[in-house]
Amino acid sequence: MSVVGSVCEDLHILGLSLRVSGSSLARRPLRYWVAAHGFGAVWLVNYLQPTGGHISTEPRINDRIRVPEVRLVGPAGEQVGIVRIEDALRLAREAELDLVEVAPMARPPVAKLMDYGKFKYENAQKARESRRNQTNTVIKEMKLRPKIDSHDYETKKGHVVRFLKAGDKVKITIMFRGREQSRPELGYNLLKRLASDVDEFGFVESAPKQDGRNMLMVLGPLKKKTEARAEIKAERDRRAAERLADAQAERTEQADRRAQAAAQPATKKRRGPADNLDPDIDLS
């Protein structure tokens, strides 16, 4: 090969160290080395430079398994033993399954016969279900004034109850303005009243405390978020079943009325003079 020929030291090209034979062109510039050895040197440099890319995390399957033998596991989990890779691929083709490398670091690697597409789908479903069941702590916030109106208080309390039923924490903030700051007992009494009104759905997780111009209190739900979601789903399903039953009963009632109307004999209406278009003709 013309590239590997006349240099014996470490030749540093673009930060890459190459070990070749010879000494005359050891530490010359790249353009001199390329002129001496041809543009094949550029191909060698590009070939030996590390290239980045996406590293696949999926297991190797079928012909991608490059080992002489594997420890084979059957579709039902039975141990087949150590077999040659050709025999394992043949068994996979005969069973119309995939040969999947499940333990590549073992000696020899462990491979299993399975339907890889179905395996990936089931894993995706399990991951989606686990994400759905994760409990994310959400803190809702409700702001009130010390001299809040009774109607506004009931509205705010309804929102707090709804948050607690959904399994979320609620931070209650009392905002003081002007001379209201000299009477913190107004905010304290309001927070105690709210905590007493919603004690059926939550408890005081953090007692009222002054924070600058505001007074804060945190309410925690009595039920976990997963339990609250399950109850909400059950209530939604119950309402949907009731609506479906009502619609079915209404359709049945309408069908009965149509059947009764069809069973009654049709009475022919006698036409009178008023129904005649020609007043000179008497139909009686």
Spatial strand arrangement across the major sheet: 4-3-6-5
Helix share, percent = 25-40%
What's the helix count? 7
Distance between the termini: 125 Å
Q: Please state roughly what percent of the residues sit in beta strands, choosing from under 5%, 5-15%, 15-25%, 25-35%, 35-45% or over 45%.
A: 15-25%
Low-confidence stretches: 1-35, 41-49
Shape: flat
Rounded to the nearest angstrom, the radius of gyration is 41 Å
How many strands in all?
Answer: 10
Describe this structure in words.
The protein is of the alpha+beta class and 284 residues long. Among the domains are: 36 residues, no CATH class; 62 residues, Roll (Ubiquitin-like (UB roll)), CATH 3.10.20; 85 residues, 2-Layer Sandwich (Translation Initiation Factor IF3). A 4-stranded mixed β-sheet has the order 4-3-6-5. A 4-stranded mixed β-sheet has the order 7-8-10-9, covered by helices on one side. Strands 1-2 form a two-stranded antiparallel sheet. Strand 1 and strand 2 form a beta hairpin. The N terminus is likely disordered.
